[in-house]
Design a protein that fits this description.
Elements (H helix, E strand, L loop, with lengths): L4 E3 L13 E8 L3 E8 L8 E6 L4 E6 L2 E2 L2 H7 L4 E7 L10 E10 L5 E3 L5 E5 L21 E4 L10 E7 L6 E6 L8 E4 L9 E16 L5 E11 L2
Antiparallel strand pairs: 1-2, 2-3, 3-7, 4-5, 4-8, 6-7, 8-9, 8-10, 11-13, 12-13, 14-16, 15-16
Length: about 230
């Protein structure tokens, strides 16, 4: 949610506003409108958004029935299912190469309305080809570091490997080593040692009672110990 507004005490001839009016216009372009709106006095009613241009052209009717974040539910007094978003296709006759004010109105259950906070929005109605918004880029692939394990504390392959686990599976411990050579800058690992740390890694925190880093007490019983958090900086 970009912003949260509660519109109060304002009215005009073209529309009405009450203390129960809430919402925000997140975005408005030639091809896409989005935001949220509700009547907090009627929190279970989702309603419609009517979109008008400043020369009295009706642009769209959009249902406000998309789930939004908890803050919207809090402001609306019910569920957060009050979002709207739609790709818009306009006739060529609307594309006059001018900047117009676009206004968004929430239509209440009784047929009255209020202008959604954040409205109006200035939009250029150019006569170029109308294109929908580009789809979001795919998420980066998940990083799966290489890990080797064994009962020998000296099983570390080389100095670029970090000790990321010690548990009592062997008499003297079961050690896990994680390769750091191909991990990106900013990546974090939990280390069971402050000394066997590859170059370029900086300690940024620690946690106690860690089940991934154990040690033997005086009775040779394995107990949870602390681990350190390291971040790759170079």
């Amino acid at each position: 949610m970009k912003k949260s507004y509660l519109a109060i005490g304002f009215c005009a001839a073209a529309f009405s506003v009450s203390v129960s009016a809430a919402g925000w216009v997140d975005s408005a372009s030639l091809t896409y409108y989005s935001g949220w709106a509700c009547d907090s006095a009627d929190p279970n009613y989702q309603g419609w958004i009517h979109v008008w241009r400043d020369d009295n052209l009706f642009l769209a009717g959009i249902p406000a029935n998309i789930p939004r974040e908890p803050a919207v539910a809090s402001l609306c007094g019910g569920s957060g299912v009050h979002g709207f978003g739609s790709i818009i296709s306009l006739p060529d006759s609307y594309l006059d190469n001018k900047v117009h004010k676009v206004r968004f109105y929430f239509i209440k259950r009784d047929g009255s309305n209020f202008e959604v906070p954040g409205s109006p929005v200035s939009v250029v109605f150019g006569n170029g080809q109308i294109k929908p918004p580009e789809p979001p880029a795919p998420p980066p692939p998940a990083i799966s570091p290489t890990v080797v394990s064994g009962c020998d504390i000296n099983s570390r392959p080389d100095s670029t490997w970090m000790m990321t686990g010690v548990v009592g599976l062997c008499v003297n411990g079961w050690y896990s080593w994680t390769s750091t050579a191909n991990l990106p800058i900013g990546y974090r690992l939990n280390s069971c040692s402050q000394y066997l740390v590859p170059a370029g890694w900086v300690k940024v925190g620690w946690e106690g009672n860690s089940s991934i880093c154990q040690r033997q007490d005086g009775w040779r019983a394995w107990k949870n110990d602390q681990h350190w958090i390291y971040e790759k900086r170079s």
